[in-house]
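Re: your question from the hallway

Yes, I did run it. Sequences:
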Amino acid sequence: MTAASAGPFRLVEDTADGGGQHSQGIRFAVEGSIGQPDTATLQGPRFEIAGGFWRPASTPANDTLFHNGFEN
Amino acid sequence: MNALIRSIALSCAMALAIQAPSATAAPVGTEFTYQGRLQDGAQPAMGLYDFEFRLHSQLGSPGGSVTAPVVLDDVPVENGVFSVVLDFGAAEFIGDARWLSIAVRDGDSVGAYETLSPRQKLTAAPYALYALSGNPGPQGPASRRAQPVWCRYIHSPAAAQIRRFPPAAAAHRGPSLALPYLSRSQPANGLRALRSPFWEPRPRVHRWPLRCPFRCASRLAGRARSTPSILATSPDAQVSVRLSYAAAASTSVPGREPQEPR
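Structure:
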């Protein structure tokens, strides 16, 4: 997938799924995506790949694949 | 023509890929994923949380849940991110709009959930719109071990007519078509009249079993034709059409819709 860009704008994180948005409660809030086909987590003795659009609120410092935790 | 003989209108608009799946292949199922990022107050949630997902027919509060909720206890949430698999079955996905509601509580809590709003609308992935438009999908390779296509028809006084038979059915090498006939009342009258031959060169009628006081099956077998044909049978007959190799026939039944096979 190629990151879309035009002029000063660049779309670096996007997903096309089966819906999803931000929902808010009093204490909790969630933002999510419905029906992503790639949300599985693969884990080996040393490495772990977390699939899907959503990444942790803070990018893990030890992300060895994606410098910003998300690449497209 | 015997006065008891009535016509039925045959209809079938279903086409199936006829290559039988591998015996070891598992079905896809009706699950789908939900992945998101949960905030607990001002911080990303961390730890175990209970989730309750509900499927609704409306965005607003009047729309009750259309299925039983999916309750997932002690879902691990790491730095806000969680992934779950939801399965509401397929019965409620019939083309009508659906919304997903999400409620959360602490994993060690047995108290009330906090329901988040608004409900999140389920939308189609872009190319799933092709499926929503009723496209039958590509024709699979022919196989003599193909899954049969069954369509059941209810007696109708209208003329029975198979208006269209897909060319693929006739063009396929050795297509055949079997038509079991079930009748509780007048098995002997089943499939008496066959106008404008549906099969060629000449239909063969097999009755099974020979003695059938309550239910009887007759079978016609032959080659399918791509031309319109008319079939007549006894009153109150229920007729099933099995297309052994290919695909579908379609016609109109005034005031009656084709029903799913039992």
